[in-house]
Specification:
Multidrug-efflux Transporter Regulator, Chain: A, Domain 2; two-stranded antiparallel sheet; 4 helices; about 80 residues
Length: about 80
């Protein structure tokens, strides 16, 4: 399913710029947050690695795109 899209250089530049701005926003959102691995969260909560992984897969605990868990995500889970 290949599609050819025609665009002007300025439209392409604007689209690329918006993608970079979105990435920077996402990056800054997590830079200030403390990040944990699934193993670290499992130890903190006294649960098995597999249990935390199931919670992540079920959407009970949110992760970053790289699979790390923010301190806010842990607090959100605990406050449910």
């Amino acid at each position: 399913m290949n599609r050819i899209i025609l665009t002007t250089p300025s439209e392409l530049r604007n689209e690329i710029k918006s993608v970079f701005l979105e990435l920077e926003k996402e990056k800054s959102k997590y830079e200030s947050a403390k990040l944990y691995t699934i193993n670290q969260v499992a130890k903190q909560l006294g649960k098995a690695h597999a249990t935390i992984k199931k919670f992540v897969e079920a959407g009970l605990i949110e992760t970053t795109k790289s699979g790390l868990i923010t301190e806010d995500a842990i607090n959100d889970y605990l406050n449910r």
